[in-house]
Specification:
The complex is a heterodimer of chains A (about 400) and B (about 600). By secondary structure, chain A is of the alpha+beta class. Chain A is about 40% helix and about 30% strand. Chain A is built from twelve helices and 16 strands. In chain A, a hairpin with a 5-residue loop joins strand 9 and strand 10. The longest helix of chain A is centred in the last third of the chain and has 27 residues. Chain A is flat. Chain B has about 600 residues and is of the alpha+beta class. Chain B is about 15% helix and about 50% strand. Chain B contains eight helices and 33 strands. In chain B, strands 23, 24, 25, 26, 27, 28, 29, 30, 31, 32 and 33 form an eleven-stranded antiparallel sheet that branches. In chain B, helix 1 packs parallel to helix 6. The longest helix of chain B has about 35 residues. The chains are: A alpha+beta (about 400), B alpha+beta (about 600). At the A-B interface, strand 1, strand 4, strand 5, strand 11 and helix 10 of A face helix 2, helix 3, helix 4, strand 9 and helix 5 of B.
Chain lengths: ~400, ~600
Amino acid sequence: MIRKLVIIALLGAFAVGCGGKKAVKKAPADPGPKSHMVTEVESTSSAETLLRAKGKGKSVKAAIEDAKKASLWFLLHAGTKPFLKNSAEKEAFGSIRKDLYTNYDKYFRHVSDLKSKKKVGNMTEVEIVVRIDVAMFKDYLVSQNVIKAMEDVAEEVGMPSIALIAASNSQDVDLARNVIGEYLTDRDFEVSVVEQTRKTSGLVNKLAKLSGNTDPAYVWALEAGTDIYVEVKVNKEKGKVSGVATKKASVTARAFETATGIQLASSTGNSSERAASGHDGLIQEAGNAVADKLISQIRKKWLKEIKKGKAFKVIAFSDEEQGAQVDRAVYKALISMSANKKVKRIAAGKSSFEYQVKLKDINNAFDLLEALKDRYSGPGELTREMESGTMLVVKAGSGDFDIQFD
Amino acid sequence: MRKTIITTLLLAASPVLQAAEELSTDSTQMKYERKALLQVPDIGLKSRTVKLPARFCPHKAKSCVPLGLWEFKIDQELEDQASRQIMGRLTGKRYDLIRFLPGKMEMKTLFETIDVPSKVGDFRFETGKPKAFAAEVTKYLNVQVAPMMSKLLVKAKDARYQEMDNKEKDTFLATIAKEQSVPADMIARLLNSAFVFSEYVDQPSGSIEIREDKVKRDGKKVTEYSANVSVNANLYLGIHRFNAENNQFEAYKVIRARSGSVSGGAQLYPFRPTNSVKINSVFRNSFSVAAKAAALAANIDLKKDDNFAIFSTVDSIEGDYIASSIGEAEDLRIDAPYYLMQNIDGKNVKTGWAKARTVADKDLLKKAPGEYQSQFWLVKGDVEYKDQMREHPWSGVLWYLGGGQSYQELLEIDGQDASGGGEFAGVLFGTRMDLGYLFNAKFFSESWFDMNVFIGVGGAALNSVALGNYNEPAFAQVDFDWVKRKHLGHFGLYWAYKLGWSFNALAASHPINADGLNVYSHGLHGGVQLGYLFTPNFEFFINTDGFLPASTRYIIGTDGQEGVGVVTPGYSINAGLSFHMKSIGGFASMMR
């Protein structure tokens, strides 16, 4: 009897234990933003940007915080220049995601009053405009090993030197150049502002013609010897609104790889139309608008191209008798140096030959000359005629002869 | 030749939204932006001659004697006075004032004065009909004023842009050029929204009553005459809109407003006035107050238009108080009601309402803009940070209707026993006004002035040893109370304590004689009121009052035997509904 009672009691306890509610662990709330609706308003300086963000929450305060998080999400993942560019960086971000979306106020220089407030269902939706210290935010990501510092990237792959060249000689373009130059310098690029008051050398002019590129900016770039050149143009407009004179400015910037002439980036920034006394402020506004976009494009393209190696332009001169042999020898030497065994033949005549090649582990034209000499098996020897950045001009062959442009 | 000038108000409405689209607020966060107002101080009239029916009411006569029509003149001085009254009510600190000065047209913004050379001629309109007046105004505006207006608005745009929402501009605008130069979309809004007000006063109506009274002064019987002139004025407020694209004014709307009866012109004379000349000052005062009342009513209708109403947002909530960045510069008044709104599922919904308790000084806008905030008490509903606030057009005056019961008994007549009276059931009507709002004084916030009339029947017949027996009396009570309201939570409920003076009358007819017995008493009146506020315009209330007689007198008939009496302290319980009064008539004279 007792045994039966014990069994019944045990069975009962077992049934209660199984039938009772299991404690369900509540999944922790996702600290990330609910909203992802953000638009870029303006890059106010090289270190700050203005965004308009929408946020959602159960209360106004929660919605504002959501909007702030959304703006950080935008900088990380969206827009024209997201900070996280590849899967490795996105994966690395995962480890700090919670920390970021919990402690983020320090990146905000200013949060506006509400621009909009609506209730949709049981949620409140707000819109705010925020000014974010993007430089500080990037430093944080670098310190957490999510993205590489620009300096590290520069050290690893080598950041290009950039020449800023005005499309026309005017104070307006100089102003636009200064704005873009400020952004480039801040992003650790080596910047040269080419003054077009100097004369370009006759040889450079002829070499440019040899390539078939008569763009003055290209000539200046060759003269400056930079990896990339950016041509800056300013357009000013006048208008009238309700009888009031208004002004507007736009800045167009195009970036080219000097050695190859390939366009790396192109962007136009516009100012608002305003009743302004002059165009300076508007040019600065347009310059701010174009600089950030341009740099993002340059960086992206450069990092992509640099993996294939640094681009060089090689021009070899010889005399007509030795021309064919020189051409063959120089071409073979360059192929042997090229990682993908590809050399682009730009122009070839009887005594002048132009090549473009991408080379790894060659930093400048001097290194290229030394390497080329080691591999040259043609008639005579190679002597330097001119080197400038990524351009090398050599005389090849034996005997004394003058450079002839075919 | 006397000029007839029509009052015009040029209102340059600046837009509600901010400059660049990316920095702009949408319709859920609208804020008031100062409008510019051109003032030409005069009004249009249908006629300079006003004829009002007059009558003479002799002492204790049962009816009055008609005296025919008496004629009054609206001369230039009266016209100017009325014009000032109208302007004072239609304009205010919320506007940047524009005016014509010799040789120039000047605009005073919040912090600056801008002017352009001007050769705008006078407007000439002889009296006539409203349509003719409107046509003349349009012609005058488009031919003479429009070119100058355009120049002034262009010149003033920079100053007015700088005064707009300074805090947000300083924070976000990256360059000095941006701070100082007006964006194109703002130019369009600053210049393309300009309004003209033209006021036309239709033929006033009303009546004159000359009353004769024989009273005792210093023991002597004297005859006095009082003249009461009541005037009703109808005001047409014509609004034109300025189109900066073609530099022309276009008709926008017409608001018609009535003053309500203004009978504030009573005056005593030792002689009987026999023509209008002798009571001209009474008419002039009534007409002037009627103009003011009509303008007040027009202003209420004007504020129903979003272009002319104050919008703001809830900037903070601290305890029971809401703070918002509006104040004296937006003509905010103590106890002014503001609706709270939210955008819920795509619709703007009223979620509550509040009343102003403090008004920020406009000097703070220059000294400490961040401190320019006024405090509101949430009367009813809910409030949330950054709810939209919208000015509710309000006069501060309500009329009410109700019913209830009052009690008063007769105890003595000429020192001898008397009886009668008791409980009376009847109707109650009256007006109440928010003194805080009318005087715009914080001290009077939620202090109301109630003028109550109760008329009831049902008491026992009046009997006295001294005078004999009379029939069942009717009872009338007129109370003047100061009422201090205290809100209970934020549910629209309030309670109030009242203190004032009451004038009561027991009037009973004689079973046989023509002359009845009238017992008049007056004394201290006080009580408690409970109320529920549906909206700022509609209330329910319950009163419980007491009356402590100070003096009681009786008179038989109208000039028969008089003496002293004693009545019991009384009480009354009544309830009713209050309704907003747009045309406040004579109360307009109290408005500061």
